[in-house]
Amino acid sequence: MEQLLHYCWKHKMWPLGGLETTDGRVVEVIDPGLHNKNAGPDFFNAKVKINGTLWVGNIEIHDKSSDWYVHGHEKDTHYNNVVLHVVEVADRDIQTQEGNFVPQMVLQVPDTVHENYAELLRTDAYPPCYRIIPNLTRLMVHSWMAALQTERLEQKTVAISERARQTGGSWEDAFFITLARNYGFGINGDAFEEWARHIPLQAVGKHRDDLFQIEAIFMGQAGLLELEAVPERYQKDALNEGYFAKLRNEYQYLAHKFSLEPMDFKLWRFLRLRPQNFPHIRISQLANLYYQRKASLSALADCKDMLALANLLQTQVTPYWSTHYTFGSESIRNMKHLSPGTINLLIINTAVPMLFAYGRHTMREELCDRAFDFLEQLKAENNHIIRMWQEVGLDVKSAGDSQALIQLKREYCDKRDCLRCRIGYEYLKKGKSL
After folding, report:
1. What number is the average pLDDT over the span 331-340?
2. pTM, entire model
C-alpha cells in the first residue's frame, strides 16, 4: 500500500542499515524531506547520500517502479529533480523527461506496521487505538492536544473568513452570522445561518432603538410571520392575541421599505427539539441581544475576562415570549435567560473562534492569546465524544481539551486517517506485546 510506504519514509521506519539502490549503491537518508500534499513529487528538499555523494532534491514514492509511467511522470518537468525513487517492488528502470535514469531503492514496509495498520482499520471498538492510550506519555498527549486545538480554531477561522468575504469584507456581519449559526445548536445551525444572511444589518441599524421593529424584521425574515408557519391548531389563538398580527403588519411595512424577502419557514426543524430551542425563542433572544448592542464584534474584542464575556452574551426574550414558545400557544411565565451551559457553548463555538479569526485578520496577537486563555478557563464539554475518550483513559480538564478531542474524532478517527494522527503513529510502531 503506497500510503504506508509514504508513512514509513516520512517517519524513517526502515532497517537501521543495509539500504541500497537496485544497482547496489549504498543509500544513507540524511533528511526524508518535506511531505508535499499537492501536485508534484511526494517529498521536497530531501537529502540522501548515494555511495557517499550527497544529493539534495525530491523523492517520489510508488508501489511499483512502473507506476512512474502509469502516472506520466516521464513527461512532466516537475519530476526532473527527483533524486531517488522509493518503491516496494522494482519492476523496471525509469527515466525523467530529460532522459536521465533515476536511482531506485526498494523499501519494505515492516510487518509490524502492516499488521498494526490492518488492525486499526478492521477494529470495531471505538476508537480503534484504545489499547495504546494508557501507555502514552503526558508530553506526547499534551503536544498533540495543543496541535489539535489550534487546528480546530484554524478550521473555524476559514469558515468565518469566508463569511466575511461573502458579506463584502464585513467582519461585523460575519460575527452576527457566526453567532446566529450557533444559536441553532446543531439541529437548526444551517437554518440560522441562512436566516442571518437574510438580515440586512444596515437597514436594521436604522431601527436599532426600537426593539419591536427589530423583532418584526427578525421574525419576518425567518418566515415565521406567515400564517402557514403557525401550527393550524394555534392559528386562531395567534390572530386573537393580536401580537402576531401586530408584528406581521410592522414587518410588511418594513419589508416594503427595505425590499425584504423572507426565507422559507419550512427550513426550520422542530422535531425532537426542546421548546427553549424553538426558533421563535432563539430569534427573540437574538433580537434583544442586538437591541442591547451586544451582538457586536467591537464589544466582543473589548471583553478582557470571562465574566465580561458571559455578561456580553447573556440575554432574554421579549415580553410576549416570556409566556409563549410559539405564536398562539401560551405557557408558564419564564424570561428564558440563557443557561450557564448555553453561555459556555456560545463562548466555545462563537466568541473564541471569532476572537482567534479576527486576531489573525488584524494581526492582533493578544486576541488570539485571549481565545486560547478562554478555552483553558472553561470547563470541558460533556458529550458522547468526550465521554468516549475519558472511558479509554484520556484526561479531559478544559474546553481546550474537549475541543481538541472533538477535532481528533471528526477529522481523524471518523475518517480512519490514522496515518496523520500522532496516536496512530504510536500504535503503528508498537510491538506485538500490546
Report:
1. 96
2. 0.88
